[in-house]
Amino acid sequence: MLEVGQQAPDFNLEDHNGRFHRLSDQRGDWVVLYFYPKDDTPGCTQEACEFRDNMSLMESSGAKVFGVSADDKESHQSFASKHELNFPLLIDPDKKVLDAYGAYGEKQTFGNKHMGVFRVTYLIDPNGKIAHVWPKVTPQGHADEVRRAIEELKAATA
To answer: Pairing between strand 112-117 and 104-109?
Structure first.
């Protein structure tokens, strides 16, 4: 898991609409990079819809939101369309970005160990450094929590 103050690893990933996004191209903006286990599951849907519903507040805070999972383009397209998501869902089937951000590894569900995606969010500052980490996200209320953190960090550096 990355820590506050570290340089965020760059990436170049395709989104559900076929556009590529490079972290280094986002310099000057706050970036919310949230990792989630699976499209269209209850917790992931709640988290995505809360980001969707908070998007105007995120944008007014100068933040861009990107969701990342190992699901494929078709799954992302269906998920984004079904829930009218207004931000890019990035495709990481090789799990290279998931690994770089410590968002993939061994999990335990009902006593069974398996490999999977951790629900973790990084807030990256306009200089490309990790400004805040949520290592174990609870979907309900998370988008508002992230927005408040952006506002607090911006106020502290103003």
So the answer is: antiparallel
For the domain 29-157, what is the CATH code?
A: 3.40.30.10
- What's the chain's average pLDDT? 95
Q: From CA 50, how far away is CA 158, in angstroms rounded?
A: 27
**Residues 74-88: tens digit of each pLDDT:** 999 999 999 999 999
pLDDT for residue 157 is more than 80: no
Q: Quick one: DSSP state of residue 18?
A: S
Q: How many other CB atoms sit within 10 Å of the CB of residue 146?
A: 26
Buried/exposed code over 91-117 (b: 16+ C-beta within 10 A; e: otherwise): bbeeeebbeebbbbeeeeeeeeeeebb
Q: Report the percentage of the chain scoring pLDDT > 70.
A: 99
DSSP H stretches of helix in the chain? 42-53, 55-60, 73-82, 96-100, 142-157
Sign, Cα dihedral of 115, 117, 119, 123: positive
Catalytically active residues, by annotation: 44
Helices (H) and strands (E) in the chain, counts: 5, 9
